[in-house]
Automatic annotation (TrEMBL):
<keyword id="KW-0378">Hydrolase</keyword>
<keyword id="KW-0645">Protease</keyword>
<feature type="domain" description="Peptidase M14">
    <location>
        <begin position="48"/>
        <end position="329"/>
    </location>
</feature>
<feature type="active site" description="Proton donor/acceptor">
    <location>
        <position position="292"/>
    </location>
</feature>
<keyword id="KW-0482">Metalloprotease</keyword>
<feature type="signal peptide">
    <location>
        <begin position="1"/>
        <end position="30"/>
    </location>
</feature>
<dbReference type="Pfam" id="PF00246">
    <property type="entry name" value="Peptidase_M14"/>
</dbReference>
<keyword id="KW-0732">Signal</keyword>
<comment type="similarity">
    <text>Belongs to the peptidase M14 family.</text>
</comment>
<protein>
    <recommendedName>
        <fullName>Peptidase M14 domain-containing protein</fullName>
    </recommendedName>
</protein>
<keyword id="KW-0862">Zinc</keyword>
<dbReference type="InterPro" id="IPR000834">
    <property type="entry name" value="Peptidase_M14"/>
</dbReference>
Length: 359
C-alpha cells in the first residue's frame, strides 16, 4: 500500500514537472523502472511477502492473543516506522533460563528470513504442549526486519541503478548499510537494537539472518542454499567462539538432511566490530552465528536476484534453522554439539550464470 502510494505520488509529480519543464530523459527513466518490474514475473514477487502494515497487524494480534508472546516497540526507523521486539517466554528475568535472539533483514533486500521469523512467531503463539515445553526452558527474542524502510523501498537516495528499480534496498532510508553501524550506532535502527535489546537482556545465543547473492555455488557446481560463519575478530573469548561454532553445528545438523540443502562456509575474514556477528561476540560476549540465506530481492545484478520459485524452500530453511536452535538451547543439547562440521563445511564461490546481465 505504502509503496503504491509512493509510486503514484512520484509519477504524478513527474507528470506535473513534465508540464512545467519538458524533460524527456526523466520520463524514460521512470518508465524503465516500472517496466522492469512487469517484465520479470518470474522474479521473487515482492507483493507475495509480508509488508510493513501486514507485519505490524500480525504482531499486534499475537501480542493480544498469546499469553507468552509480548511485542514491544523498541524505536522507529528513519521514516518513522515502528521497530518491534517480539519476546516469547513466561519469565524473561529468570537467570536460570537461557535466552536466544534472532535478528532479521538488516538489509531490506533480504526478505525471506523475516518470513521465516513470522512463521516461527506464529507457531510459538499457539497453546500446545510442545510450545509450553519449550517456553518452560528457553526465552526467545526476535527482532524481525531491522531495515523497515529499505524493505518498503522507501528511501531518500537514488536506487534506480538497481535491476528492479529499488523495490527493496540493502541500505536504509539514509543510504547507510546498517550492518556497518554497530559501533557508531549512528542510525536509529541499530541504536534501538543495542539500547533496547542487547543492553537490556542477558542474551546467551544470537543468530543474525541475512541473504547473500543467489549465484554462489560449491565446487560441484551446485548452488548454495545457505552459508554460515562465526565471529572472526580478535577480542572474542574462547568459550564465546566455541559456543558460536556449536550454534552453527546445531543449524547445520537440522538443515543438512533436507532435500534443498547445500550449506557452505561464508567467506569473510572481517575483524570489524561494526558488523553484528563480531560486535555481539566482542562487546556482549554473545555467541553469534551469521546465517546467509540464498539470493536477494533486488540488486544491480540480475544473477544475484531470487526467482519466485525459490521462495518456499528458502523460507522453510530459515524456519528450520530457528526452530532447531530454539530446541537445542532449550534442551541444552547445544552444549555437546559437534563442531567438527566446520572442518568439512565446503567453501563457496560466485558463479557466472546465463543471467549475468546487470543494469
Ligand atoms: Zn545482509
Amino acid at each position: 500500500m505504502i509503496r503504491k502510494m509512493v509510486k503514484t505520488g512520484s509519477i504524478t509529480a513527474l507528470a506535473l514537472s513534465l508540464l512545467l519543464v519538458p524533460s524527456f530523459s526523466d520520463s524514460v527513466k521512470a518508465d524503465d523502472n516500472r517496466t522492469n518490474v512487469n517484465q520479470h514475473p518470474e522474479l521473487l514477487r515482492i507483493e507475495s511477502l509480508t509488508n510493513y502494515d501486514e507485519m505490524s497487524r500480525f504482531l499486534e494480534n499475537v501480542d493480544r492473543k498469546s499469553e507468552y508472546v509480548n511485542v514491544e516497540v523498541i524505536g522507529e526507523s528513519v521514516k518513522g516506522r515502528k521497530l518491534h521486539l517480539v519476546k516469547i517466554g513466561d519469565n524473561l528475568d529468570d537467570p536460570n533460563k537461557p535466552t536466544i535472539l534472532f535478528l532479521t533483514q538488516q538489509h531490506g533486500n533480504e526478505p525471506l528470513v523475516t518470513e521465516s521469523a513470522i512463521r516461527v512467531i506464529r507457531q510459538l503463539s499457539t497453546d500446545s504442549k510442545k510450545v509450553r515445553g519449550l517456553i518452560d526452558k528457553v526465552n526467545i527474542l526476535i527482532v524481525p526486519r531491522l531495515n523497515l524502510d529499505g524493505a518498503e523501498g522507501d528511501v531518500d537516495w537514488d536506487s534506480s541503478h538497481l535491476y528492479r528499480g529499488g523495490l527493496q534496498t540493502r541500505n536504509n532510508a539514509n543510504g547507510i548499510n546498517l550492518n556497518r553501524t554497530h559501533n557508531s550506532l549512528s542510525q536509529p535502527e541499530t541504536k534501538a537494537l543495542h539500547e533496547n535489546v542487547l543492553q537490556q537482556y542477558d542474551v546467551d545465543y544470537a543468530i543474525d539472518f541475512h541473504h547473500q547473492i543467489a549465484n554462489r555455488a560449491t565446487d560441484d557446481g551446485e548452488l548454495v542454499s545457505g552459508a554460515m560463519l562465526y565471529p572472526t575478530n580478535d577480542g572474542v573469548k574462547d568459550e564465546v567462539l566455541e559456543s558460536s561454532k556449536k550454534l552453527g553445528a546445531v543449524v547445520y545438523k537440522a538443515i543438512e538432511p533436507k532435500k534443498y540443502s547445500n550449506l557452505a562456509r561464508y567467506h569473510s575474514d572481517s575483524t570489524s566490530t561494526s558488523i553484528a556477528r563480531n560486535n555481539f561476540a566482542a562487546h556482549y560476549d554473545i555467541p553469534t552465528l551469521l546465517f546467509e540465506n540464498r539470493g536477494l530481492s533486488d540488486s544491480p545484478n540480475r544473477s544475484a536476484i531470487l526467482e519466485q520459485k525459490d521462495r518456499e524452500y528458502l523460507i522453510k530453511q530459515g524456519e528450520v534453522a530457528m526452530l532447531a536452535a530454539i530446541e537445542a538451547v532449550a534442551n541444552r543439547s547445544i552444549e555437546t554439539a559437534d563442531t567438527s562440521i566446520w572442518d568439512s563445511l565446503p567453501e563457496q564461490h560466485t558463479v557466472e550464470t546465463e543471467l549475468q546481465e546487470s543494469k
